[in-house]
Amino acid sequence: MKNTSFQSITGFVFLLFLAFIFGCKKDDDPAPQTQPDPSSGDTQILTQTRTPGFLNNLNNWQDYYINAYPGALASDVAEDDDKFAYSYKLNSGNWYASLSLQGFGFTIPDTATIRKITLKIRRFKEGEATIGDYFLTLMQRYNCDLGVCRYGVEWTDLDSYSGKTYPDTETEYVFSQSGSGDDGGYNHDQQYKWTPAVVNHTFFGVRIDVAPVLGQGEVTVFYELVELTVEYEVS
Ligand SMILES: [Ca+2]
Questions:
Q1: Domain span at residue 60?
Q2: I want to staple 78 with a disulfide (CB 3.0 to 4.6 A). Which of 28, 51, 88, 223 is the partner?
C-alpha cells in the first residue's frame, strides 16, 4: 500500500516534470515572422512570407490565358525541394506561356502601411532555344476584363535585369518594389499603392509571362520556388 502510494506520487511528480518540459518546449516554438524594430518608437516593422495556393487555377476555376503548365501544382513552387512547376515544350511556333500564382494567404492588418514587397524565385530552362520574361509582375487579379489586373512595378522585355533571360542552371533571383510609388506598370510611369485589402485577397499574386522563343529547337521553363515577402508597418 505504502509502496503503491509512493509509486503514484513518483508518477505524479514525473508527469509534472513532463508537463514542465513540454511547457518549456512550447515556448521554444518558432515565433511568427514578426520582429519589432526598436529604433522606431511605437512603430513596428513586420514581415510575412508566403507561397502560392493556386497555380493557373483559382478555386478550381481556370485563371490563365493558355495553360502552358498542364501538370504543375502550386505545391511545386512552395519549397526548394527539386520539385518543379514546368511548362510544356515551347518553340518558335508555340512561343508564349503564362503563369498565374495566387492564394498567398497574407493576413496583413487593415491598418498597416505596406513598405515593401519582395519576390524570390528560383528558375531555369532546359532546351536549345532561348527564352525570357515578356513581363514579370505582381497582380490584383489575372483577368484584366474583370478589373485592375497587373499592378505595381513590372519587370518586362523593355528592361534589363539579371535573370530576364532564363539560365540553364537553377538560379535564385530577387525582385522588390516599394509599397507605393510612381514607377508602376509596363512603362514605369504609373502611380500605385499596395493596400492590405488587396494583398490579402485570394486573387492577389504573381504573374510571369515568357516570350518569345528565340533560336532553333525547343525550350521548357522550370520554376523551383516562388515566394513573396510583404514588409509592413503598424503603429
Ligand atoms: Ca519546388
A1: 33-234
A2: 51
